[in-house]
Known about the structure:
Elements: E1 2-13, E2 16-27, E3 31-35, H1 42-50, E4 57-62, E5 65-66, E6 77-80, H2 92-102, H3 107-120, H4 136-149, E7 154-158, H5 166-183, E8 186-191, H6 194-200, E9 203-208, E10 211-216, H7 218-223, H8 228-233, E11 238-241, E12 243-244, E13 250-252, E14 255-256, E15 271-275, E16 281-282, E17 290-302, E18 307-313, E19 317-323, H9 327-330, E20 337-343, E21 348-351, E22 358-359
Helix pairs in contact: 2-3, 2-4, 3-4
This protein binds adenosine-5'-triphosphate and magnesium ion.
Residues 42-43 line the site of magnesium ion.
Amino acid sequence: MALVQLKNIKKAYGKQLALKDVSLSIPSGAFFTLLGPSGCGKTTLLRAIAGFHQHDAGDILVDGQSIGHLGANQRNVGMVFQDYAVFPHLSVFDNVAFGLVQQKVPAAAIRQRVDDMLATVQLDQHAARMPHQLSGGQQQRVGLARALVIRPKLLLMDEPLSNLDAKLRVELRRDIRALQQSFGITTVYVTHDQEEALSISDQVCVMHDGIVQQVGAPWTVYNRPANRFVAAFVGANNFIPLEWNASGAPTLLGQPMTLPDGLSITNGCACMASIRPENVLVNRPQAGDALRVDGVLRHAMFTGREMQLSVEVAGHGLIDALVAPHAAMMALQPGQNVQLLVRHDDILYFSGQNDGVLLQ
Ligand SMILES: Nc1ncnc2c1ncn2[C@@H]1O[C@H](COP(=O)(O)OP(=O)(O)OP(=O)(O)O)[C@@H](O)[C@H]1O
Ligand SMILES: [Mg+2]
């Protein structure tokens, strides 16, 4: 069941339309992530849910009741911000206790709940410290504890990990996910980091320019992107125009293609194919029906976990491939001929050149 429903939300700052008719349904207990590039409206949407600003049109419902008229402090939401936003003059304990004091919870109950919460976020040893005596990751745990201790109906998080270093980010995102699941708390999380969104969420909502592009499970958004924008923003992709030879048959990278059964591609139309770099196999003989094309290796980069290769296919530009760094791959030198192979199932097709939708 949906806990939060957004109906036709619009918000403008002067002439700048930040949200253009956003409708969403956020299931109860879900980890729901708003993902999109800078300026696409993520924070604006989160703040509308929190009640920090009024939207221009549309309605927000929680448990079926409109909350549009309620102020931020009446909405029972916990909020965690990018810049920690802990009170610098209060100890860790008092920061976490803050919301409970405001709610006039009795002192003994406050002590118990704050102690429990500090243990949950592994800060029980640091209750007496001041924020400046904590690392960024620890400060963000204080922010999280402070938001959760009031037992909100909804947890809202705006890029809570983006000020942390890469390793800590991965660690803390695992903790956030575990906490969210153990509390069963409906969470709306904002990030522009697509890997973070895929790894942490039940559902990902991809936004662009104030418009929802797709809502789906991480697997779906990655493997069945609704349109070209999602395909390009979530993960990497090679985009290759489908071409038509003199006899009107489709070709890709100069090779004749068998288009998937049932795909409605009209002869001669301007379609775009997309292929993920990890699905471009290099020098790997494989039986069966696949796209095979020769090229010349132009760039090879070793990143530790993998090799990033760029291969020039004559007349068609560079194709990126991501391969495991086995000895044979490490030995490849720019200028060498290589063969690329792509399984037909790993090719998606989009209508139109730049703004097409997924054809299936
Ligand atoms: N107070 C404001 N006054 C005017 N324009 C604003 C204001 N706040 C946001 N905007 C504009 O509204 C659009 C959406 O902004 P928003 O902060 O929601 O983006 P975002 O997706 O959170 O981006 P980021 O990833 O950079 O945080 C942007 O074009 C932004 O410039
Ligand atoms: Mg933002």
